[in-house]
Amino acid sequence: MAQVEKRQFNVYLPPDLIKRVKHASVDADESLSSFVERVLEDYLLRTSEERER
Predict the structure, then answer these.
(1) Residue-range domain boundaries for the chain
(2) C-alpha closest to that of 5 among 39, 37, 43, 49
(3) Residue 36 is inside which H or E element, if any?
(4) 11-46 pLDDT per residue, tens
């Protein structure tokens, strides 16, 4: 599988949300970057499908 170029993307979030996301990525046995990427892709796919209905 080909590597996709990655770039840094900084966002500002509440400390409690950061803590919860970090714990969720550990629970999912994923790196923080992979976890956030997957969750965002899932959300965008879901909302795109809902708009098409």
Answers:
(1) 15-52
(2) 37
(3) helix 32-52
(4) 999 999 999 999 999 999 999 999 999 999 999 999
